[in-house]
Structures are given as C-alpha cells and as structure tokens.
Amino acid sequence: MINASLAGVVETIGKSRTIDRVLGMRFGIEGVLENHLLDLSGATPSTIRTLRTTPSSALGSSRLKLKEEHFAPILRTFKRFNVRYLFMAGGNDTMDTIHRITEYARRQGYNLTGVGISKTVDNDLFGTDHTPGYPSAARYVALSVLQSGRLARDMQRVDQYVIFQAVGRSAGWLPAAAACAKHKPADPPHIILMPERPFSRTNFLRAAAKAHRKHGFVSIVCGEGISTRDGTPVSAATTRDKFGNVEFGAMGGTSAAMMLHKMIGDRFGWRGEFQVTESLMMCADDRAVKLDVNEAYGCGRKAVQLAQGGHGGVMVCLKRLSQPGEPYRSGYDTIPLQGVANKERPMPDRYISKDGLFVTKAFLDYIRPLVGALPKYADLSMKRAKP
Asked: For the chain, what are the domain ranges?
C-alpha cells in the first residue's frame, strides 16, 4: 500500500502546473543524507500504474532516528534541489520525522510544506479510522488462521494445537483480525492474545484445556508483543533495536508463539505447531484488498492537494462515514503531525472481550468491511453411518 500511495503522489504531481518534478528518497530520509534521490518524473505512466499494485516499498525504507546533526545537511540538499514539498508515508516515527524537518526548515527561514501519509499494518496511528495497509494485512491473518485452523481441526489426532503469531509490538489489531475466520463456536480461532491485556499463564492454559475438551483441538492467535503484568515479554526476548525497543520474532531470536507452544507441550504433553510469518503479511499482494489499494492511492492524491493548498504539518487519515450495518463508505481527513508523532493507538476496551482472550461484536463490525468476504469451505457431516 505504500507503493499505491507513492503512485497517487507521483500521478497527482504529474498533473500539477506549479510543481516541476517529483524526487524519490532512496531508503527514506537516508536517501537525502546520502544524496541518493531519484527523479520519478521520468518514470513511464505504465510503471507508475503498475506501482499501484506492486508489493513492498519501491523506494526502500529506513529506521534512522534523526539527530540534530542531520538537519543541516538535509536542508542543504533540499535547497540544492529546490524541494518545497515533503511527503513521507509511514507510522508515528515517520510523522515525527516530517514534523522535525519542517520545523527546522521554518526556523531557518526556508519555506517547506510537509504532509504525512498514514501507513502501517499495525493500525496503531492516532486520528484515523484505520491505516492503509492494515486491511490487507488483516486479511492475510484471517485467511491464514481460517486455513491453518481447518488443517488443525482435521489433523487433531496428530497435532492437538496450533499457534499463529501476528506482528504488532504493542497493539492487537492484527491478531484480533483472525476473528473474521470464526462463524461457529468450534471454528478457529479459540483464543486470541492481544498486547493490550497482560498475559496470564494460568488463564491461558485453563482456556486452552477448555477449548481442547470441547473441540478436540485448540487454535490460538497471539500478538508478538504480549507481555505479563510486570511488562516481561512472553517471548523472553532481550535483544533491543536502535530505538530501545525489544526485538520480537526472528530478530529477537525467539517468539511469543514458541514460548506458548512450550507452555502447552509441557503442561499437557500434546503435540502441536506454531507459525511465525513475520513480514509476509506486509507484502502478500495475492491477499491484498482492493479497497485498501484504492484508499492508499487516494491518500497520496490527497496529500498533494493539501500541500499545494498550503495545508502542511498534517497527516492524511481515513474517516469512516458509514454506520455498522450500512455499506462501507470512507473519506479523507487530517490530523496535526504533533498529534500522531511518537504515539500509539491501542485497541479500545470495547473491542476486547471481558476475559481478554477474544474480541467483541463491535470489533467484528469494525473489521469485516475492511477485510471483505472470506472463502467458504465444505464441511462433511460427521454423523456416524448406520449398517
């Protein structure tokens, strides 16, 4: 979806009478510091159209945390190329980057308009109904749990449980999306563990045993960042990134799913498996949602329109215009960059069940229009045949 927004920016600027060309930053803001800018105005219309449905991030990405010594060289490069508009797509760190750069330019007397484009599969940005990228990643999770859960059901005499881990450091929007796969009580998933609720080993094992007694197997979905009440990650990871955040999944050398797997195996002696897909849910174009592509592209277009109208210092966000039960409709809105930068939006309490192990109908009303209809599979009657 980040490419869809880029396509929206490039195509909209291509029709502008006031902007000469559009430059792409190779590997984000690092491209400015390394003087690696791409003249995207030279890209063919066919390339930009195809970019709209191309997975990953064509320009590359960055995890550079800006320091004071970075701002002067960034501004020098902008002056050399006469850059007057800055667009960046990403999460709260990205919005912080835009805000800090434009504020520095203002203090130096340089006219630079910055507009952010919301983008993260985690769906944890303030001010938006959802972020572009989330619907497609949520569909990836829902389909994965639907299909792997069906396998677990049918293979329960071999494997008694399956655990699927979704990304999301401190927000449970993605693991919660697995609930779209469930229509009957026996359907997977049976347990969803979200970072918004402290993990209790006792409650978890009790719920797993109950599901196993009722259904013959248990399907579990967890967020990568689930932690105990004292803040200890269930993954037991201790590795930290350059921002001081705990590295989850493969980057941390362990995972919450792995530890949950061990807890169940040690307690019940069952055989089971765990699935940690890491970044696959961020780039699986075959599971992309058309609605997501269109909204992401529209966010890119809206960003350019706002900038040319002199409305900088904001992030483009999505506003839901429809009510539950109505056909889904959305529009575009804005929120000041300061209201987004370095902040996170957890799932609200009304979306999480009282026991903290599943979601509510309110969440399903929220997520299902974004994910879209899931496949329906055949179920054989399990009634015993008579002689």
From this structure: 2-126+286-339, 134-285+345-371
